[in-house]
Amino acid sequence: VLTITRRLLLVSNSTLHGGGYLDHCQTQIQDFFGKDVKRVLFVPYALHDRDSYTKTARDKFRTLGYNVDSIHEASDPVDAVRKAEGIFIGGGNTFRLLKSLYDNKVVTEIRRRVLEDGVPYMGSSAGTNVATISISTTNDMPIVYPPSFSAIGLVPFNINPHYLDPDPNSRHMGETREQRIRQYHEEPDTPCVLGLKEGSMLRVEGHRATLLGTTKARLFSRGQTSVEYDPGSDLSFLLTDAH
Amino acid sequence: VLTITRRLLLVSNSTLHGGGYLDHCQTQIQDFFGKDVKRVLFVPYALHDRDSYTKTARDKFRTLGYNVDSIHEASDPVDAVRKAEGIFIGGGNTFRLLKSLYDNKVVTEIRRRVLEDGVPYMGSSAGTNVATISISTTNDMPIVYPPSFSAIGLVPFNINPHYLDPDPNSRHMGETREQRIRQYHEEPDTPCVLGLKEGSMLRVEGHRATLLGTTKARLFSRGQTSVEYDPGSDLSFLLTDAH
Ligand SMILES: [Ca+2]
Ligand SMILES: [Ca+2]
Fold it and tell me: N or C: which end of chain A has fewer CB within 10 A?
């Protein structure tokens, strides 16, 4: 059962073309973590060089008024989650990220902290994928084998970050993003997939979900025509069991 | 130990922009299967609609002088592999394909027939991915969870089908194909990855490998600069243990 305390900021992409790291969502980050959170627990597992990645996140969050502790610097990762005021899981490779979350046994504890204790959770790209039911709609290469594709499950649907509509001028014959998501929906009992274009993000406050940012999102549901939503749209219906 | 009888045709893509199904490689298909093979065993597991997919393959192969039996029409898939004169595994979703190969228990038997009996194996796109060490360099979405990413292992390296160089004009911030393959090579003990552009294919005859088709291929090796190869290049060095 999803509780009413759940607070999420699920961002499509860490960097928007022409901007710096997290620039395009910095006001949303400050609005989300607010003034009560002083320290954010960063999870750099999606990239190989965790020290360098932590420095990037730490430098950016410092300019926004937050101190960053990285989970990879903690002697006990589960305990670090247990004490976190806020959590931010960054992008990179989704398979590497999910495998590391399982290897470090923090999947259940992150879920518990967010759903039961109301600890605010921010994800970007791969960090957004792992917040959903499963990583089955990631764009990443399966460079390592995780023990499951099931993810943290903070929302009852899937997300495709970096979503982009088919390019009518493309001569490339690999599947379009839409075709890939349709293939997912050919499988039984597959949930909705929210395609978040670069520049968009989803904010969840309890039972309320709102599309934020400057670009649109496209919602794919099994056996139905996809629907596009503008920034500002109320997507709270995605949080109910029927979806 | 890889035997000298091995015969493979590993195609990047089933359809080239502006052409029909397998048009761009039809002369190579006839040259590969030759006049001795009369019936080709088709594996349609990568697509959801296996009947429709089999009709597409059957119609095309008939124009090339071959009859097609589909493995999904056989009462005993392992027995169908045991009796095959030639094998063709088509493209689609690589995860769905590999899971079905394991579910139907044909991975080992296909490997045995190709490496020990010299049965010619053709793969296209996902069918090329599963011919290599692992599916870790597929472009597809992980829509189902296979019991392993290890594949049939007919060659001692990996392939990235539909390979494309970075687009300098792109404003999209998702990883380029090159970045994705580099992330794979950040993991320990990862083999070479041959990026086969659309229009290219690899033909293997025993210990000899040759790049065919009209486009180039780019070879990625762990910790080294990538190298581009022209059609006609001898890539036999990829078949030795050092690679
Ligand atoms: Ca990624
Ligand atoms: Ca594919």
Answer: N
pLDDT tens digits, residue range A69-82? 999 999 999 999 99
Do residue A173 and residue B198 have CB atoms under 8 angstroms apart? Answer: yes
Of residues A72, A162, A185, A243, which has the active-site annotation?
A162
Average pLDDT in chain B: 95
For residue B153, the SS3 value is coil
Asked whether residue A242 carries a pLDDT value surpassing 60, the answer given is: no
**What is the CATH code of the structural domain delimited by A7-239?**
3.40.50.880
Contacts of A205 (CB under 8 A, 6+ apart): A6, A7
Which residue on chain B is closest to A20 by alpha carbon? B173
Domain spans in chain B, listed from the N-terminal domain onward: 7-239
Locate A189 and state its tokens. 């009992």
CA distance B238 to B209: 8
- A148-174 pLDDT per residue, tens: 999 999 999 999 999 999 888 888 888
Q: Do A92 and B183 touch (CB under 8 A)?
A: yes
- What's the rounded Cα separation, in Å, for the pair A13 and A163? 10
